[in-house]
Amino acid sequence: MSSEELEVWIDQELCTGDGICAQYAPNVFELDIDGLAYVKGEDDELRQAPGAAVPVPLTVLSDVVDSAKECPGECIHVRRLKDRVEVYGPDAAS
Ligand code: SF4
């Protein structure tokens, strides 16, 4: 993967609330009081609109990718900003 810019979003409908993502990348994922995981931006605010995405900081890219791979709900989606093609997650090509 090059340094092209990526963003990540969570499909809360499938989230099991186990918190794996928040353990791996606490700067990007957090469980809210509803027990579901949400992405959060550099301002530390959760993005709760359905399908809301935040940029993936390169410093935590591998943690975010690991979260997507191990997410039991298969509901973490990492995509390219420029064309919105999913590169990690359940809808990635390979
Ligand atoms: S790892 Fe997946 S299923 Fe688990 S809390 Fe995070 S988004 Fe939800």
From TrEMBL:
- Function field: Ferredoxins are iron-sulfur proteins that transfer electrons in a wide variety of metabolic reactions.
Q: Which domain of life is it from?
A: Bacteria
Record-level Gene Ontology MF annotations: 4 iron, 4 sulfur cluster binding; electron transfer activity; iron ion binding
Q: Which protein are we looking at? A: Ferredoxin
What keywords sit in the KW lines? Answer: 4Fe-4S, Electron transport, Iron, Iron-sulfur, Metal-binding, Transport
The record's section on InterPro entries has: 3Fe4S_ferredoxin (IPR001080), ET_Ferredoxin (IPR052395)
Q: Which coenzyme or cofactor does it need?
A: [4Fe-4S] cluster
Query: Which Pfam families does this one have?
Result: Fer4_15
